Every structure is written in structure tokens, then in C-alpha cells.
Amino acid sequence: MTAMDHHIVRDLEDFAGIASDWFWETNADHRFTYFSSRMEDVTKLDSKQILGQRRTDVAMVDYNDPKWQAHLDDLYSHRPFRNFDYAIRRPFDGSLMWLRIAGQPLFDADGTFCGYRGTGHDITPEKIAMQKLEASNRALAERNTELAETRKALERSANEDALTGLLNRRAFERDLQQFFDGCGSNLGLLHVDLDRFKWVNDTLGHAAGDAVLVTAAKRLSQIVGEAGKIYRVGGDEFQILLIAQRAHENVRWFGEHIVECMRAPFFYDGHRMTIGASVGIALVDETITSPRDLIDLADGALYQSKRSGRDTLSCAAYETRQERSFRRQLSSELPKAIEKGAIVPFFQPQVNALTGRIVGAEALVRWKHPRFGILKPGRFLDIAATLGLSAQLDRAVLRQTLRLADRLPKMGLSLDSIAVNTSAGRLIRHDLLSDIRQWWLNRDCQLSIELLETLHFDDMHESSPVTEQLRQLRDLGVRIEIDDFGSGRASLTGLLRVRPDRIKIDRNLIQAAARDPMQQSVVAAIFDMARALGLQAMAEGVETAEDVAVIRKLGCEVFQGFYYARPLPEEAFCRLLAEGLKTKMADPEGLPRQSTLP
């Protein structure tokens, strides 16, 4: 298999992990050479027993059907095909299973046939339902009542979530349009997302996750009652339409009660779990011209709740129609921007205030947009999260950052360390370790991974996936840092579990301490705690010489902020690194003095 083939297979596996279909390939002799792992999950068949066989060798039912002959004609004529349905009997229990497949012939550069690549899908439930419907139709004269009930059941199935009994996404989109057309200004939307649901699945399994979802649905139903409708629209996401007469006046009350109710512990199989929920609220007003506008606003408010520390609610800041159009454009362009390398790191130096020397840098993501210029993360990170692209953004930044670190010695430059932010989704991906092994070539430049506030340190334990990943990162020599410490998202217990190499004190706390003596005692206590635990500590967000002088007196030596430099593109950062800082340093006595560095 060529390198390109390996790349294609890896991409197929990545995509297959989130798709309901599975992927397959055959060679020129029509023998199976590849199945994605999804096939085994869905069909319960062992791919090892099928690889090397033709489709006609796999326990088929009624292969004399004329449709089979037509299918074989397509195969031997090397024609593409779609929606070919056939049945097999599973060898381990003899049960009947219906499959729907599609395939595309593959040819090499010379036009020689190489085989097929295609998808497969389990349509057994669909076939069974269709057979039942056909049987009901045949007996329509005698079983009108039974047929009516069957139709009602099918309608419920199409609009209800099987696990929770709530309405599903299809029903939400239908009802939202109807209510939007009919209720006008009396319509409110709450977007609810469970904060720590993924941790439950990762640590206790999907059965525990299902139990949490069922309990959460019951709690939401008790709160909302007859005032609105509740929909499960995703894994741990719910939408609530408030259609009561005074929806605008009551929507915040509902949101607050939902947040409070979700703080109560969940229980499963003897385990006590703290979940919490974030809520985004949007209301119809004169700026809202479509259901999509309302959804976008609620999504933005939900993202703000998560950025604010989760377990809270936010009301939408109403955007202009132009802003909503802008966000939709970014949503459509972001996947291609990642693919084409338009996502780049900017570098903000980290400086020793006593020497004025640049001792490190943090890589911060930017989007070089062909029309709008350099976009800061606040413009697109929430879009990336909604699209499930956060890990891809992190990967792009890590790769380019480590490429810069590798080039520095060739330019006659050196840098002690460089830090890269890592989202929760990226941290638990297996390719993080392999990427670092492959890309981190200049080991004289220390690599640090900054853990973002989306991680829940208090929920970590010795056997959790994140704990194991952190251990392996340390084995590679990577340092672990906690970003935004002091923002209330990482407790002392969580800190002791992670045992980071360094903490970065939140910029808001630093700014408050620079102006408020009461806050200074808090920051001083953090520095004392860090020293007692053997951790390094640095301050981020310093903007003036006075900020540096005040925080320096509290025991800090390393700083990051606009006072020294804003985040810089690679070329400008290298130039700054070569020339040295020509700015002020904080004297040990707290008085600013001029740098004597060239």
C-alpha cells in the first residue's frame, strides 16, 4: 500500500468513526481488501473472516434473485452502482440482516481497473418496517384499526428520540418554523448542553451516559411543563421552545432553574456524578428574520456560557443581519481554510522581567482570511466548536509551531520553550502523541501543552483517558501547563491531580491585582502555593509597566502581555527574537528602568 493509500485509509477511518455507514474496498478480482471498523460495530461480523472473499461468498440469501445478476453485470463491467440491497445471514446466530451498498470503480493513471471503493449501511430496521407495512396494507380491509395504530407508531418513531422519549431534531425544525410563523414575538429558545457528559461516557461507559440523558430529560420536562416543548437534538444537547403567552418575561427564570436543577448529582450503578449544564437563551425581536437567526443566536449565547466557566446561562447579544451573514460565511469557509493552511499561529513572547530576555512564547491561533484579513480566535473558535473542528485547529497550530522551533537554530536563534493550547477534544485523540514524536525535532526548545478551561480536572482519576495521555506526554518530555488559573475553573484538588509543571495566572486576576490591594493578596497566595508545590508560575495579561512592577513584588518573574508585545506573525516574532526587546524591565524594587539589551 502506498503512502497515499495509507493517508486515504487513515482519512476513511477518521471519517468512519463519526459516520453511520462503513467503508469497504475490493481489488481488481472483487475480493475485499479493506473494511472500516464501523462495519464490525454495526454488523457484528468479523472483518478478518471476510477479507479476501468476494461478496457472493458471504452467507448470502437468495443470490439467484435477478437483481443479483444485474449487480454482477455492473461489477464485471466496472460501472458505479448505488442502493443495491441484499440480505445475509450472520454466521454466528443465523439471523437475517439487510445491507445497502454503493460503490465506485477505481482506475489507475493508465485506466486499468483496480477495484471498487464504497459504503455499506444496515437497513434491517427499514426493511422490517417496510415488510410490516406491506403486510398491513395487504390486510387493510380486515385490520383498519391495526393499520392506523401502526401509522401512529411510525410517526412517533420519526419524531421522537428513542432513548429519552423527547421530541427529536426533525420535530424541532418543523415546530420552530411553525411557531416562528404563528407566535411572532412570544417565542423564546433555550439551548441546553450538559457540561460533563463526555467525561461520564469516557469514564463510566455509555450505559451511564444513557442514564444521565434519561434523568436530564425528566428534569427538563418537570421544569418546562406545559410552557413549551423540549427536544433532544444531539448527543447531550437539548433545545427548548417556550411558546407561553409571556415567554420573553419567563425565559430567564426557566434558564436559571435548569442550571440549578442540573447541579444536583446524578446516580448510576452506585456512582455519584456531578454534571452541570450551560444554557444559551435567544428571543425573537425585530432583528430576527428566520428560524436560523434564532438558532444562531442561541448557539452563540451557549458558547458564551461555556467560555464563562460553564454551569451558567447567557442571553444572546443580538447581532445585526450583516453579522449573522458573516458568521455563516465563516462557517462554510472554515473547513477549507484548515485544509489550505490559512489557520496559522501568532507568537506572543514570555519575558523574564529582571533580564528582559525572551524565555518562551505562546502560539495563538489566527485565521488569514483572504477577504477579511487576520481574524482573531474570538471570531471563529465557537464556529469551529460547533462544526467539530477544534481538534483540527489545534493540530494545524501545533504542526506550524514545531516547524518554527525546528527552524530557529538554522536562523541562529534560540528559544527556551514554546507553548501550544490544546482543547479537550484534541487532548484525547491518539494522533496527538504521534504528531509530537514526528514534528518535535528541536528538543532544545521545550514544548509545553497548555490545558484549557474546557477540561475538568476535578473529574480526572488515575485510569481516565486524559490522565493516561498526560502521562505519555510527560514521557515524551512535554511539559504540562494550566492556563487561566484563578478563573475558578481549576480547584486545588484538580491541580494536585494534574500536577502541572507551570500555571498561568488568569489575566483578569492579574489586572485586578494590579489595581486592588485586596486582590494582590490572592495573587501572592497563588505564587506561594505554586512555590510550595514546586510549580512555576507566570502572569499573563500585563499591559503596563505598573502592572509588571506590582506583580513582580508579589513574587513573579515571568510575564506575558501587551506591555512586552502583542501576538506576532512568525516573521515579526523571529525579528523580535533576533533583535531583543527594546522595552522596559521591572526593577527588583518595583521601579521601571530601561533595558540595556541591544
CATH topology of the largest domain: TIM Barrel
The multimeric state of the shown protein is single chain
SS-based class = alpha/beta
Tell the overall outline.
globular
CA-CA gap between termini? 55 Å
CATH homologous superfamily grouping of the largest domain: EAL domain
CATH architecture of the largest domain: Alpha-Beta Barrel
Count of domain modules: 4
- The side-by-side strand order for the widest beta sheet comes to 13-14-16-17-18-19-20-21
Radius of gyration: 29 Å
Strand fraction band?
15-25%
- Name of the level-1 CATH class of the largest domain: Alpha Beta
> What average pLDDT do the residues reach?
84
Written account of the structure:
With 598 residues, the chain is α/β, with parallel strands linked by helices. The protein has 4 domains: 120 residues, Beta-Lactamase (2-Layer Sandwich), CATH 3.30.450.20; 31 residues; 160 residues, 2-Layer Sandwich (Alpha-Beta Plaits); 249 residues, TIM Barrel (Alpha-Beta Barrel), CATH 3.20.20. The chain is 44% helix and 23% strand. It has 22 helices and 23 strands. The strands form 5 sheets. An 8-stranded mixed barrel has the order 13-14-16-17-18-19-20-21, surrounded by 5 helices. Strands 2-1-5-4-3 form a 5-stranded antiparallel β-sheet, sandwiched between helices. The longest helix has 19 residues. The C terminus is likely disordered.
